[in-house]
Design brief:
single chain, about 110 residues, alpha+beta, 3-stranded antiparallel beta sheet
Length: about 110
């Protein structure tokens, strides 16, 4: 194999490795948020789906509308954290596979 072909194959292998690492990282994304008074904790996965919700006994003393607002706030904050983690992982992937990071041009093979 020529030196150019070796460089191209190596670059493609590097991109595949970066993609696999990103997929693994995306599968592990979690966002978690606990309210300031520690009465509500929400956890979401990388897609923003609720995976855990913990309520302190102290919420029973509050009106239901207040508790529901607190739960929604905690879920939104946890989802924002997960979204930021996803964005960071995808930005790293984009940077690693950006044009110019692979040796050779489109007709170099």
């Amino acid at each position: 194999m020529s030196e150019q072909m070796n460089a191209l194959v190596s670059a493609v292998a590097d991109r595949l490795e970066a993609l696999e690492a990103t997929l693994y990282e995306l599968g592990r994304v979690r966002g978690q948020f606990t309210s300031e008074d520690r009465s509500v904790t929400a956890e979401v996965d990388g897609d923003g789906a609720l995976t855990g919700l913990w309520l302190a006994e102290s919420v029973t003393a509050r009106p239901p509308a207040e508790v529901s607002q607190l739960v929604l706030w905690a879920c939104q904050q946890a989802a924002a954290q997960a979204s930021a983690q996803r964005a960071e992982a995808l930005a790293r992937l984009h940077e690693s596979i950006a044009p110019g990071n692979v040796g050779g041009g489109p007709d170099s093979a």
